[in-house]
Amino acid sequence: ARGNMVWMGLARPLARAQFMLIAFAFYIRFFYGVIALATFATYLISLAIADKNLRGLVYLAYLSLGLVVSYLIVGLLIFHDYRSIINYILVNNQLSFGNSVDMTLDVVNKPQTWVAVGVCALALNVYTLLQRRRLFLTVNILFLLFLKLGFSRTDHYLNYFVLPLAVILLLPLFDRSSLSRQVVIISTICLLYLSISPSYPGAPTATILTKPGINFRVAYEDRMQDVYKDFRLTPDLLNYIGDASIDIYPYNNEYAFANKLNYKHRPVFQSYMTITPKLDAMNQEFFESSSRPKFILWTAGINCNSAACNPFDSFDGKYTLNEDPLTTSSIFLNYHKVAISKGKNGVPLMLLEKNKVARKYSEIFIKNEKMQFGKWYNVPMIEGRLVKIKPVFRLGIYGNIKNLLFRGGIIKIKYKLASGEIKEYRLNILNAQSGVVASPLLDSFNYSGGQVDQIMFETNDKRYFEPSFDAKWIAMPEPKVNIIKPIFNAFSNLPPEYTNIKNIQCEGSIDEVNGISPPFSIVDVSGGFYVNGWLAYSTQAGELYDKTFLTITDGNGKTSFISTRKENRGDVAAAFHKKALINSGFVASIDSSVFSGKSKLGLAALKDSILYKCDQFEVNINQAK
After folding, report:
1. Is 469 helix (H, G, I), strand (E, B) or coil?
2. Largest Cα span, the chain
3. pLDDT tens digits for 225-253?
4. Which residues contact 461 (CB under 8 A, 6 or more apart)?
5. What predicted TM-score, i.e. pTM, was given to this entire model?
6. Using one digit for the tens of pLDDT, what is the confidence trace for 300-344?
7. d(C-alpha 439, C-alpha 418), whole Å
8. 3-state SS of 351-420?
9. What angle do CA 299, 300, 303 make, to 5 degrees?
10. I need a surface site. Which of 115, 261, 287, 349 has the fewest CB within 10 A?
């Protein structure tokens, strides 16, 4: 009763004033506003149900009307432009949706994680049902929101699930009852477990106490100069840019702060957050307008740590040119390359300058095709053009529910190059419909890359998508691209020079032939095909062979030898606890025209002039016509 009297005294002024707080929270950070609105709205609904009258709903109506007016007023004070208020809602709505679908990680949370989450949910429900029934709806709605925010991209669970739930625990913490204390203790143990134990292999854990403090006495610009000192550009590049406007693409805007550039960024200034076609179209419009910046500094991907890396390899196993296709297509149409330079750790950078006349996005139609997951499709070729495919993936009922309550599925694209090598990248589900690179697979700022003969779309969740989909093949007018012809490994009908020969059981593995893993039956090959694996002289001693060879034995028993290239195999070194085994990997690109019909693929190696032939490796291969 005392609680009801207190509420009756506070409800009216709360309903009149809280909408201002909620509106302001939306502009601090959008999801703060969502949480504030959910908190007050569900509480007012709970009061209406508990008191069995419409007073709580009347206050909710006051709250809603006041929130709309307050949102407009606060927005105009901040932006001075009503269109920005609308765009603010649009951008945040798209970011929220896109994050749930495409900012996911290809990982599985540990069962213990869900046990801890479930125990927290149970404890809070017991507490609210027995002691705070009017908070039951509010606490559960907030719990679901935090679960969605924290685990839709699963590596965000510390900031968006653990910390908010710790705040909710302040409710039972200040209750003087045995039950509330038990709830606090149990839930705190669960949250502590989530904080210090990785939710999945490699997941982040709480490191708040080990982070160094920030000296706010130092001016912001000076702090940025020190923090980003490794992102300095070369003097000749800075002289060329001068004080002209510039955007940094796809991310790494540290270059703008480290070099005090005249930074004029696109609406969504980090490409990995351009995760829906609407957001992508906003960037497209920006780069096709007269207000676009004079320069764009195209930086290498986050995973690029050396001068030899592929600058288009992005994080999360994605490919930069597939992340925001409308943005990149508009950049290629309206900018031209003026310099290639070096950035942090010597990674490549590309400076683009705008063309005199802005052009609208365009594409060249090739053909339509019906497709299915898990099947290879031939890529059409147009000389000098970048060929793309525009798939329209359809979600089933399960997929839509999964997007709403949890997180999206995973789609990957496999590229079978003319060399036989198969490369795999994660795709953005939503933006894929705007164009996925097919061929060539560019791997340098010279706009060159290997020819792709076939592509395949794969998904690990057959319930999430419908099995078939429509696709359209297109070609881009810009940039003009160069296809690099495959370089096959050396083939010889004669064995390498040796003084003795031994047949042994080797330590190693043929991991893949043309992307197919063991157990092998008959592998059909044509054109170029690719083989990778590892081989060691002694895993116990961490000793390697001098040279590793693939062998091809025809039906008459004649054996030919193919040289291989080394490949780092950190997994092998870790498995046997021998650092030297990191160099045990091998790869080879083979021209299938060097043999005919059915043959057997095997392994051999040279050590101290002794040729070792591995008896246990024998893969049946057939040259497909």
Report:
1. strand
2. 99
3. 777 888 999 999 999 999 999 999 998 88
4. 409, 410
5. 0.84
6. 987 788 888 899 998 888 999 999 999 999 999 999 999 999 998
7. 10
8. EEEECCCCCCCCCEEEEEEEEECCCCEECCCCCCCEEEEEEECCECHHHHHHHHHCCCCCEEEEEEECCC
9. 140
10. 115
